[in-house]
Write a structure and sequence with these properties.
With about 300 residues, the chain is mostly beta strands. Helices cover about 10% and strands about 40% of the residues. The longest helix is centred in the N-terminal third of the chain and has 15 residues, at about 80-95.
Amino acid sequence: MFVLVLNQNNLVQDGQNNKLVYRFPNSVNLKDKYIAVSSISMYYSWFNIATQYMNNYFTYTWTSAGTTTTYTINISDGLYNISDINNLIQYNCIQNGTYWTNTTSGNNVYPFEMIINANRYAVQLNTYLIPTSLPTGYTAPSNFAGWPTNTFNTIVTFPASFNIIVGYGAGFASNNNVSNGYTAPSPPAQNNYVAKSTAGTLSYLSNTSPQVQPNNNVLLSLSNINNPYSQPSSIIYSFNPNVNVGELISERPPNFMWNRLIDGFYNQLTLTLLGTNLSPLTINDPNMTILLTIRDHDELSGK
């Protein structure tokens, strides 16, 4: 039995930090050999929202004097929770002039928000009825987008891929509620629960579990493995980041999960880190150490 040590020196230098290559000093015959993961030490540093995942934007509308403008909220590659996304909503509303301010408290009023509804295990979207003129006790910013001819609620749209983050259907769009004329269905709509308050506020709930971190499980794929019961056949182990973002993941399996190597002569083995969707992860911190153990068939059977 012997141990292979893979660390950042074994990384393929493509900027992705998801592929490690172990090169043997000489070509070796790995006949009747089994391999298993001994330990994993790496930092939780992969993004949940990124351009490569195509889940980095959504839209909202604003109507001024009968003209409707659609604004796109672009999300820079990063690690976000729902409160971070809501902060980004507020930032974009300020930049677009789609808000107004309470002169007494100094608090801004935004056309919509996203919050966690812990009791329902859902992301709640609230859209608010926009008046046709500035309410008493409030002031509008210098870049204000303008008041509508008729009251309305902004239309928030979740395109494909971003919808998975918040647990809504692809292409979901909230109701415009022009002139406060929308009637919430009873019982709630099949696709997303929606309720309407007397003030014209529309509230929606996720209809599937939000996957704020779609890649909450990491799969290890090793070359020269042929497991007929696995798809893909090269998967030898999986683990989940049971720490906070930026903290060290220390994974040590309680029992080795032995996988048979395809008989043959080898000069290298390649280990790839995959996300839940079986696509290679982009790991931001290259500081990692992964130990693999190889043993003979006789050692495995105890002969």
